[in-house]
């Protein structure tokens, strides 16, 4: 399984992270069903231009200039933050991470194959893929090629067809860009699409099972990955299953992005009081193929619901048996095209079912997929004042001064905490 990874020129925003939560669920559902998953995620650290087509500036080079850092520093920094973000979201790391800049040779080799087979041509700007050579170009997105070509008002410059795309771009003035490499065609850098084709095939073979990404990738990035890979490797289909996560959007329905505002990072959510697990829970509440509307109101609802769920589970007696009925229902939901909203409903029903056996054991099993820290006990952060009172109360109890102990218990209650004594000792929890 290959997932298009982050372009590491900035923080990944919570929209991006929704897509990785989706691929994490997919992977965990496959494992739940007994499959072994070899998962590759790439790091795009060169070649992704400010427009998904072949115009604009390289995002990494632009960020490096703006932040007065080297391209590599930029890429390493934002990659490390991304890794921290996914760890906090309980997204499992892939089997293999691969960076585009560490696989330039593989990309050049693939372009050479395409050249030999007659799929490429040269312009003053780079080496391009001739999409008119393929009868089925655009099949993934069901692109209306004729319509696209007819509306040729768009300037295509030296390109032969509107849909043709760059495999290798020439450095305009060698020595100016930070990241450029020599190639049989001249000094330059790879196109964004060839990176994913070359790296996925290097690690997963010339034909593999699953490829994921966000839905924005369907018409250009993934369409072009298919075109060049099927042409180079001669295998059809190159990828057996494509799965795409729908977007996190604003209330107006526009996608959450830098330009439309409403684009937050995980750290910003935390600063506003929303823990990563709340965001994961929020994402699981909507099917991956549906748009998810982001607002703080919606996120607050998820936060309340998540807290209620955790509290209920916290009060449930440990019992490691499995409730086969509920587990079966859960399994059916996740296997139905990853229906996580339904799976969460089953989980809620189990938690609320007063007669159900094996609750904790079953939740533990469900957590292999949901990964919401539902069984993780929160460490209670007790204020200094309450701690002092607790000690004082302990002393009073030792002296068998029950009246004093009860008074202190009341004081603690007023500060928002409940004190309970049982055989094992004194326990404290939030009111
Ligand atoms: P990028 O770093 O721009 O290459 O994007 C990383 C991943 O996030 C890609 O799979 C995109 O399709 C996905 N993505 C971008 N914007 C959103 C969004 N608003 N909601 C969900 N996924 C997104
Ligand atoms: Zn990709």
Query: What is the makeup of the main sheet?
Result: 5 strands, parallel
Helix proportion: 40-55%
Compute the average pLDDT. Answer: 92
- Structure summary, number of beta strands: 13
* Strand arrangement, major sheet: 3-2-1-8-9
Which secondary-structure class do the elements indicate? Answer: alpha/beta
User: SSE order, as H and E?
Assistant: EHEHHEHEEHEEHEHEEHHEHHHHHHEE
Spans where pLDDT lies below 50 across 5 or more residues: none
Strand proportion, as a percent range, falls in 5-15%
Number of helices: 15
| Shape summary | elongated
Bound molecules: adenosine monophosphate, zinc ion
As a whole number of angstroms, the C-alpha radius of gyration is 27 Å
Describe the model.
The chain has 431 residues and is of the alpha/beta class. 45% of the residues lie in helices and 13% in strands. The chain has helices at 14-32, 59-67, 71-88, 104-116, 145-150, 192-204, 218-233, 266-271, 276-284, 296-314, 324-335, 340-352, 359-370, 384-398, 402-414, and strands at residues 2-3, 40-43, 96-99, 120-122, 126-129, 165-170, 188-190, 208-214, 239-245, 248-249, 292-293, 417-422, 425-430. 40% of the residues are buried. Bound molecules: adenosine monophosphate and zinc ion.
């Amino acid at each position: 399984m290959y997932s298009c990874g982050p372009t590491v020129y900035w923080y990944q925003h919570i929209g991006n992270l929704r897509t990785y939560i989706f691929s994490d669920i997919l992977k965990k559902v496959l494992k739940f069903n007994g499959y072994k998953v070899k998962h590759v995620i790439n790091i795009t650290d060169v070649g992704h231009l400010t427009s998904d087509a072949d115009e604009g500036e390289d995002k990494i080079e632009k960020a490096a200039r703006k932040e007065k850092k080297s391209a590599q520093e930029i890429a390493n920094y934002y990659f490390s933050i991304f890794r921290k973000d996914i760890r906090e979201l309980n997204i499992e790391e892939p089997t293999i991470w691969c960076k585009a800049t560490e696989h330039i040779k593989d990309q050049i080799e693939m372009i050479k194959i395409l050249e030999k087979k007659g799929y490429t041509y040269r312009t003053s700007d780079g080496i391009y893929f001739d999409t008119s050579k393929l009868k089925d170009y655009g099949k993934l997105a069901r692109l209306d090629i004729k319509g696209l070509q007819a509306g040729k008002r768009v300037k295509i410059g030296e390109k032969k067809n509107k849909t043709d795309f760059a495999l290798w771009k020439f450095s305009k003035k060698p020595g100016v860009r930070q990241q450029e490499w020599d190639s049989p065609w001249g000094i330059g850098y790879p196109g964004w699409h060839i990176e994913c084709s070359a790296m996925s095939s290097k690690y997963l073979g010339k034909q593999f099972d699953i490829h994921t990404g966000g839905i924005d990738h369907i018409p250009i990035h993934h369409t072009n990955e298919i075109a060049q890979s099927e042409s180079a490797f001669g295998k059809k289909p190159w990828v057996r299953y494509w799965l795409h996560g729908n977007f996190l959007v604003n209330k107006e329905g526009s996608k959450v992005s830098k330009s439309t505002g409403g684009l937050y990072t995980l750290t910003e959510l935390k600063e506003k009081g929303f823990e990563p697990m709340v965001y994961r829970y929020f994402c699981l509440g909507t099917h991956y193929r549906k748009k998810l509307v982001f607002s703080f109101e919606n996120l607050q609802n998820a936060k309340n619901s998540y807290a209620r769920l955790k509290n209920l589970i916290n009060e449930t007696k440990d019992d490691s048996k499995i409730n086969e009925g509920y587990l079966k229902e859960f399994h059916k939901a996740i296997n139905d095209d990853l229906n996580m909203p339904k799976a969460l409903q089953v989980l809620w029903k189990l938690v609320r079912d007063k007669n159900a056996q094996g609750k904790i054991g079953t939740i533990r099993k469900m957590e292999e997929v949901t990964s919401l820290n539902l069984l993780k006990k929160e460490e209670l952060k007790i204020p200094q004042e309450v701690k002092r009172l607790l000690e004082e109360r302990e002393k009073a109890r030792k002296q068998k001064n029950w009246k004093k102990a009860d008074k202190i218990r009341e004081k603690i209650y007023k500060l928002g905490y409940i004190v309970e004594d049982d055989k094992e000792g004194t326990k404290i929890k939030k009111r």
